[in-house]
User: Which sequence fits this backbone?
């Protein structure tokens, strides 16, 4: 009986390590190096707004947005940029976003950072 228990425990441990070894928080980590990040022409409408549409707008739009922060309009993003940047970079003191999801890709974070450094133009 002891041998059977040891075999069972070793099997469970091996299965656990196998399954947990295949976990990735986001697609970027899964396909490392398979895609490039084009930051040559970062604009709000083509680079930043699509990130918010894909990750944020489902909770942060409409008449009662989560956390009272809207990400579906340029003016609201600019007004709340400090809170948004803290949350999406998952900095201490900010609620990490997207909620219950992995961190945005480094490419998406870079695009938002470039847009901010360029003066947050509505382009």
Assistant:
């Amino acid at each position: 009986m002891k041998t059977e228990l040891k075999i069972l425990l070793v099997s469970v441990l091996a299965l656990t390590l196998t399954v947990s070894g295949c976990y990735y928080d986001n697609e970027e980590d899964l396909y490392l190096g398979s895609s490039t990040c084009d930051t040559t022409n970062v604009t709000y409408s083509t680079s930043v707004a699509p990130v918010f549409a894909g990750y944020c707008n489902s909770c942060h739009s409409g008449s009662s947005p989560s956390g009272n922060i809207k990400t579906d309009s340029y003016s609201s993003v600019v007004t709340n940029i400090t809170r948004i940047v803290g949350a999406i970079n998952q900095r201490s003191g900010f609620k990490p976003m997207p909620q219950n999801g992995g961190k945005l890709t480094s490419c998406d974070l870079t695009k938002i950072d470039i847009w901010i450094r360029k003066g947050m133009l509505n382009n």
Observations:
- The chain has a mean pLDDT of 84.
